[in-house]
Specification:
384 residues; alpha/beta; Aspartate Aminotransferase, domain 2; seven-stranded mixed β-sheet; 13 helices; 41% helix; globular; binds pyridoxal-5'-phosphate
Amino acid sequence: MNNKTFVENYYISRKKGNSVKWQRGRKENCLPMWIADMDFKDDERVIKALQDFIAEGDYGYTNLPQDYYKVFCDWHERRNSVSYQPEWIRFTKGAVDAMYQVIYSLTEEKDGILIATPLYPPFKATIKECGRKVYESRMINNDGYFTFDYKDIERKFKTGKIRMFMLCSPHNPVGRVFKKGELEELFDLCQRYKVLICADEVHSDIIMPDQQFIPALSFKKYRNQIITITAASKSFSLAVFSHCHVIIPNKKLRDKFIAYQRHMHCGSVNAFNALPTYYNFKYGEEWLDSVNNVIYENYDYLREKLSPYFEMTTLEGSYLLFLNLGPYNKSDSAAKYLKEECQLLVNAGETFDKDCKDWVRINLATSPANIKKAVKALKKIVKD
Ligand SMILES: Cc1ncc(COP(=O)(O)O)c(C=O)c1O
């Protein structure tokens, strides 16, 4: 389906409902380009399958569809050439919930956890909430293209205080889809220093042209120390359903995780919440490819219009662009400045890294018309 047809058929105005994104936009009289969900409705076959479930009226205790694991594993095998075994898979209510449970069950209070910043703020917040110590390694920024600082990571590993590296891949907010070699170098260090890897891969289906997503668990030699968090919630904008997978091949680690879930009484899966994932993995592939194309077109347009003025990330994956207002920012927070001067709601750079107050994160999963409005608004501060 071409982009124009996709947008005509699937863009939804969320202005009137209870959308977190748009409600705040309404309240602040701004165009909302913050938070990570999409302004597109789901494929009609998925909607119909959900309607059929509702219409049936059987709302008793329910198992997952019998082929749930097959559909899930086939999706990952087909799209990213990674094989998962059904017994490795556990469920949580979301990716942040999964981070919380992984940290609690597989690390100790004295342990340090390393993250590569700038980074989606709940990583740091969750580590802290669990009472673990946060270590940060700032990524190297080469004109908007961010890479790991391996020397700094190794220096931190050498302290012997770090038990886990929390990886965001694709990376929010810097939009990187890490190359095989980059991950290998990182995982090699983790192996050498006996550091567990928790890979949050919730953006793994939003991949720009000419990029290939490499799942952490596709590296067999590091498998025993990797925990993957993955969901369809970003791919198909299913946040309301709170359904996420934690994949743990190492039986010892998995048993510990399961014991934690039993103890907290939080390991059972909600079969209703799992249905949109299941139906999208069955019917949503064309929709997903189309949405990726629309996001790329939005990125391409924004980049063409704004790159003469602003530094910005190279979007390889996710629909989140990190943009540096640089000298155009006349406030202690670029996000605040854009809200006041341009009626644009974005995520503040300083929430991803305290030194990124000139940066903002912009959500590109919307109509080209909204992107045009955002570009116009951003150009205003250049003219002023
Ligand atoms: C990398 C990453 N992990 C986790 C989440 C949150 O996921 P959930 O709503 O399932 O907790 C987000 C949301 O934007 C995200 O970007």
